[in-house]
Give the backbone structure.
Amino acid sequence: MTFVEYKMLNPFQRFAYNFKKFFKGIPGAVAGFFKGVGNAIVKFFKGIAKGFANYGTTFVKGDWATKLSYLIFGVGDIHKGKVYKGILFFLVEVLYILYMVFFGWGFISKFGTLGTQATKTVYVNGFPHTEPGDNSMLILLYSVLTIVITVVVFAIYIANIKDAYKHQVMRANGEKPTGLKHDAKEFLDGKYHITLLSFPVLMICIFNILPLIFMILIAFTNYDKQHMPPGTLFTWVGFKNFGDLFHIVDGAKKGITFIKLTEWTIIWAILATFVNYILGMIVALMINKKGIKLKALWRTLFVIAIAVPQFVSLLLMNQMLATNGAINVLLTEITHLFGNEGLVEIQFLNSTPLMARATVVIVNLWVGIPYTILSMSGILMNIPEDLYESARIDGATPFKTFTAITLPYMIFVTTPQLITTFVGNINNFNVIYLLTQGGPSTQDYYQAGHTDILVTWLFKLSMTSQDYGLASAIGILVFIICGTISLIVYNNSKSMKDEEAFS
Amino acid sequence: MIKSYKLRRNIANAIIYVILAIMGIIWVSPFAYLLMHSFRAEGLITVNYLIPHEWTFQNYIDLFTVKGSLNFPRWLLNTFVVALFSCVICTISVLAVSYTFSRLRFKARKKLMNVGMILGMFPGFMTMIAIYYLLKAMGLDRNLVALVICYSSGAGLGFQISKGFFDTIPRALDEAATIDGANKNQIFWKIILPMSAPIIVYTVLTSFIGPWCDFILARIIMGDRRDLYTVAIGLFDMKSEEFINTYYKQFLAGSVIVAIPITTLFMIMQKYYVEGVTAGGVKG
């Protein structure tokens, strides 16, 4: 379809066209995603190969100082007169060697086995005496740290060689290396990104990437209650945790729990996303309808529900839904009006799985609708007024303008957001955990209840039953699910493609 | 004809008012219940009627005076201090990262942005244990500094919204400043930041609110150091089976005390959020 043809469609047809295009695009996007991943991997290895080639040629072309930089950091720079940088490079090497000798090597050398000697109590002449052994957890943690540091030092090493060669070429051309003052100034201009990013990136490396690598590695170990260092050690088990999760036969509790919880997680995410979306849209339309007064008041009433911290509002909800809670009191008083004498004591959260699940979904309406209202209101106000005017002139009924303008516009604009919300709901920990803590509990599942979703199960496994290996495996799987969905949407979304269009 | 159209519209509006009013009541009534019962004098836990019979300030007074397993003023102070520090660090990180990605062009830019997005997709609970052990290895467990670190360390990953805002500031301004001899640092401080009030307020408020709402990580890090609790874990703890029978009404009062400032801040924040996002939306 050409641009002109597209412009000739009426809004509804346009929407239908876009809708069709979006869903038609999904297989292509999936394929594109895997192709992209493949390309990235190929590119990565090509980059490494190129790096090695450069590494070799630079060595051949380098003079004695550049060559010596391959062994001792910074020699090339010092020789060419860039003393301060050379000294910095040299210091990095010294510190790294000291670190490895006195600390890192002790851990990284045991990385393959994660320790062999557990801490135990031996009796020397009849007296108990603790003989310290290995600690798998610390070995893994510090090994990861050492690996990260090594990668960074390697990058500095390469930079040192490049720099040495650069200055060699500069000297051959008769140029002088820039001074400290000039370089420092450069960090406020040409290299300003390094100045701004160094602190946040450092924090992210230490407190996000390092723990993440650690936990990903944990997924391939048998770290659980039976293997608690320092008393007992844990070790590599390959894909056993993943195998457990996909081992679906009768009696294999972990596999059954995983499949059932995945099912519920997806049902939950669909319900929580789409029901909230539709109802929220209806309410937003009512609030924004022409002729409705006190718009700000109505909006505020709903927004309060999300403004109050969730642990307050949901704990309160949990309390109100108890057998003797406010909801049952209210129901009792209502039924009294109809001549009922007894107490209403509905067990919303603790009787049947269906009841608990329905309650969670309904309470989530209460939590979720305001979010939809908030985002929808903005969009509704952004619909160009002239669209409505021309429709009115053409004699369209209000219903017609709604189905032909408002609805398509809103659905089209909010589709990417809808999918982000979907991913958010897969990870919606608060609602489930604060309302039911996963209950009603059951013996059929491994450490989970009927309303548990994957992330709350993950949380329980790592907090209550200390099945760290299994929990990490689930985390990785959740990541794969969410990552695939988001990347597909992300690659499809206009705003990412046209990032530069407005700047 | 016109009359009947008007009548129909009025009926439709009346129905909408009724629906909105009913929904409004449903949405607000839990908080009304919370507020009323935080002033309730009689009964220990829940009561089988909706409106309290006797009203009192005692629950609030207890909350601030009873010591022992309950130390609400201290928790309030802890949370405030943690929120203040992490808010400063978060704001600096977020603004620095989003300015870099929006305005500066360098080789690894796209790659770093993708890495940031991928990191954000791992479930946060996965790394909690590792973070705890890491902090323990640093000797920072059971320490408020650890909380500040936890809340602000990942801040740089949340750059999308403010990057979107910076993207909408015309590049011609930067170029003009460059011609006048300004470097990137001066452009950031003297041109971009003064124009970014809505997004700065938004970032400050979101990062200030965060620590008040976290009841998971803080509990793992603080363990049994009750004097170092934040209000969120403190209140969560008061609702546990161990304390609920003693402190139910104080729990309600505490919830009100926390909810009021956070709700106010959120209301302010969402105004700025809408402003920031629609400022971006005008051109999109």
